[in-house]
Specification:
Blueprint (H helix, E strand, L loop, with lengths): L4 E3 L12 E3 L2 H5 L7 E5 L7 H10 L4 E7 L18 E4 L6 E5 L3 H12 L6 E8 L7 H4 L1 H11 L4 E6 L3 H9 L6 H20 L9 E7 L9 E4 L3 E3 L4 E5 L2 E4 L6 E3 L7 H6 L3 E7 L5
Helix pairs in contact: 2-7, 3-5
């Protein structure tokens, strides 16, 4: 059952039901069991406020290691750096956390950390918090944040991908200063970080999650009591991702003015976080093979 007791109504069977989490914090402080270990990565870069807030929230639950890209790596999917060396440097700007700045992708970061950097295999891998949402197919396959969690699942480690929807003006504000964004954004990120860390801690010691990714999308303004709703990835018809800039030359151009289709059964991840709730999609690869 792990460290977290979950009071719920058959998650996965009842759609649109909220998830109520209760974490016995005194359990970790007691010498009943060793502290769990978490590996944290992202695709926006190690300096971004979002990942640092998450690292600080995770510290209360165990030992935290960070292995994250030195620069933004959005839209890289599961890219592995094959034709160049990947450099790794210690990063000392997150108090209480052992961290490395990696000149590569999220998948590079997790793979190298698990192979060479960590003293032990982590209990849970956490990727995020992403600046912006990560929902619907095929966007999940393009996301560096989700890819970091997928790399953990490849290694047989329960993994969590965290993303947060931002209004356009807030998104632009973060792009202007991702290290110290406006106070109202930091306050919302801090709440998402606390909730995300609590959820990740709930997966420590849970059976049958070795090859599982939990893809979580927070709404723009999450609250401590915002409902968690089980979802599945919706569908989106993206069409072309490029615009012709001059004959024979094309530049990336993404627009949200695309057709979205809700799946049958559980509600769509996009639909849920757009309505102000927390979307929780379980990507279970244990059933394959």
């Amino acid at each position: 059952m792990g460290l977290l007791r979950v009071r719920r109504k058959e998650l996965g069977r009842v759609a649109h039901k909220s998830l109520q989490l209760v974490f016995p914090r005194d359990l970790l402080s007691a010498n009943i069991m060793p502290k769990p270990t978490f590996l944290l990565t992202n695709d926006d870069g190690i300096n971004v406020y979002f990942i640092q807030a998450l690292a600080k929230s995770l510290i209360q639950y165990g030992n935290v290691y960070v292995a994250a890209p030195a620069q933004e790596q959005s839209w890289v999917g599961r890219r592995i750096t094959r034709s160049a060396e990947v450099s790794v440097s210690r990063y000392n700007k997150i108090p209480g956390v052992t961290a490395w700045e990696i000149n590569g992708t999220p998948s590079d970061s997790v793979n190298i950390a698990l192979s060479y950097l960590l003293p032990e295999q982590p209990n849970v891998i956490v990727s995020g918090i992403n600046v912006g949402w990560n929902a619907m197919l095929p966007l999940l396959f393009s996301s560096g944040t989700v890819a970091g969690a997928l790399e953990g699942a490849v290694w047989g480690i329960p993994s969590v991908a965290l993303s947060m929807h931002l209004h356009e003006e807030d998104f632009e504000a973060v792009k202007q200063d991702s290290i110290n964004p406006p106070a109202h954004i930091r306050a919302r990120v801090d709440i998402a970080a606390k909730l995300g860390a609590e959820f990740a801690a709930s997966k420590v010691g849970t059976d049958n999650l070795n090859h599982t990714v939990f893809n979580i999308n927070f709404p723009t303004s999450p609250k401590p009591d915002t409902p968690w709703i089980n979802t599945q990835p919706g569908q989106i018809d993206m069409g072309s991702l490029f615009a012709e800039t001059r004959p024979g030359h094309y530049a990336f151009q993404y627009t949200e003015d695309t057709k979205k289709t809700a799946p049958s059964g559980l509600p769509s991840d996009f639909e849920v976080f757009s309505a102000g709730n927390i979307s929780l999609s379980k990507l279970d690869f244990n059933k394959l093979g």
